[in-house]
Amino acid sequence: MMIEVRNAVKRRGTRLLWDGLSFDVGAGEFVTVLGPSGSGKSTLLDCIGHLDRFDAGTLRVGGVAAGRSFRQARSVRRRSLGYLFQDFGLVPELTAAENVTIAVPRRARSGRTTAGALEAVGLAGVSSRRAYELSGGEQQRVALARLLVKRPAVILADEPTSALDAANEGLVLDTLRDLAGDGAAVLVATHSAGVQAVSDRSVVLSGAID
User: Fold this and answer.
1) How far apart are CA 38 and CA 84, in angstroms?
2) Residue 68, pLDDT score
């Protein structure tokens, strides 16, 4: 399994988000995380992405349990993880091409070239434009191109289609499905029925526990 969560517990202040949460995501699976606002969908992705920590329970990504080791967590992020979040995660002053290449480690899995990835998402003509000059849909496509270059083993996407029109939403979903088809484990937090409809299965968070 590429993602293994066992008996996870997470609190936000005095609120218990989830207690005893366990699930797996295997290579080639496209899994959605569902639940009402406040149920901790984004927090769950942050914990799996080693940007936050469970209060209790265990996590393995790509067979590695980083525990509380900052160095091991950083290694997992660089080697195995790719992100697709609502704020796109781009550096505003860098060009589209620079934003694609800057996040790719030297030992990334073999993927497309930067130019090829931008062409694949319909952005061949904007490689030299700075991120702040691009529309929201174009910025999300730059983030997709970054995934195509890196080819991460695990992809975490937080509401990746929430601010997109139908055409860009379709492109995002097709790309994520293609990446899963190539062997990536894809985990998507979403409210979208359209995203859920193309997923293999769902992890459902019931909401914060008082």
Assistant:
1) 20
2) 82
Question: How many Cβ atoms are within 10 Å of 67's Cβ, its own excluded?
Answer: 10
Q: Please tell me whether the overall predicted TM-score, pTM, comes out greater than 0.90 for this model.
A: yes
What are the C-alpha distances in Å from 22 to residues 59, 89, 95? 9, 28, 40
CA distance 141 to 147: 10
Q: How far is CA 56 from CA 8, 47, 66, in A?
A: 6, 11, 14
Q: Give dist(CA 61, CA 72) in Å, integer.
A: 11
Q: Strands 56-61 and 3-12: what pairing? A: antiparallel
User: Nearest Cα to 148, choosing from 105, 183, 179, 180?
Assistant: 179
The DSSP bridge pattern shows strands 81-84 and 3-12 to be unpaired
Structure tokens of 19?
A: 């207690």
Average pLDDT over residues 8-22: 94
Q: Write out pLDDT tens, residues 37-69.
A: 889 999 999 999 999 999 999 999 999 998 888
